[in-house]
Amino acid sequence: MKKGLLFSLFLCCMFGASFAQSSIELIPQGGYTFADKVNFANTLGRIDEGFNYGGSLQINFNRHIGIEFMYNRMDVPAQIFDYGALPGDVPLYQTNAGINYVMAGPVSSFPLPHSPANLFFGADLGAAFFSPNPYDFSSNVKFAYGFQFGTNIYLDPKVGIRLSGRLLGIAPSNGYYFGGWGDPGGYYGYNPGIVQFGFNVGIIIGLGEVLPVYQKAERAPRGPKPRKYYYY
User: Which candidate, 1, 86, 104, 226, has a CA 20 to 30 Å from the CA of 38?
Assistant: First the structure.
């Protein structure tokens, strides 16, 4: 009975509070990204699903506007197939795709009244660096973009949990080569574009000053409206 009462009081305190956030937040995070098919000029590619990891540094100008500097990495299998390949067919070429995203962009936050949760969404622009194994192509750089949405749940003004969904994309470009330099078995694809969606969980670590919680100024009560008299 006492434990249930204490738990109820804890929930009332948590969801009745509205925590501020820090001006600088470090957010290590990881999650799961879904697969994507890649269309080449004469073959089909596939980037498998798998885990991703990374983090972001977010600078908040106030409780509603900030800017994020983000890094994210994926190490998942990637294959090249002939057009018309059926499930279970042997790929023409297989490697371990290493994709590193380095991006930055604005983040808009919407604190929920009387709640420790902040809704947010943002957009990022930057670059994707490919480093597939066993061959390293870290100099293979493509233009990348991203969108994200989610919620920050603050346990304290400087500690919280981030739950987010993120779409990461690599814009079509001049092409991408699967294989080693001078490898006669390599494959070159023209104008591929990669778009993948995933979910992430992160830990918010506040490093800056706690931002103030703005309160709406109360309006002074108005007196009765003066009566208008008409003389005839």
Answer: 104
- 104-114 pLDDT, tens digit per residue, is 999 999 998 88
pLDDT at 9: 40
Cα–Cα nearest to 50, from 107, 115, 100, 97: 97
Q: Is residue 5 part of a domain?
A: no
Tell me the mean pLDDT in the region 197-201: 96
The residue ranking higher by pLDDT, 6 or 115, is 115
Residues 47-100: tens digit of each pLDDT:
889 999 999 999 999 989 999 999 999 988 888 787 777 777 788 777 788 889
User: Shortest CA distance to 131 belongs to which of 102, 91, 92?
Assistant: 102
Distance CA 170, CA 101 (A): 9
Domains in the chain: how many in total? 1
**Residues 6+ away with beta carbon under 8 Å from 201:** 29, 30, 31, 161, 162, 163, 164
Q: Does the residue 198 lie in any domain? A: yes
> Domain containing 174: what range?
17-206
Q: Which CATH number fits the domain that encloses residue 108?
A: 2.40.160.20
Instruction: State the Cα–Cα distance between residues 56 and 188, nearest whole angstrom.
Output: 33
Residue listed under structure tokens 């500097």 = 69
Does the residue 211 lie in any domain?
A: no
What is d(CA 21, CA 158) in angstroms, rounded to the nearest whole number? 6
Q: Which amino acid is at 209?
A: E
pTM: predicted TM-score of the whole model, two decimal places: 0.77
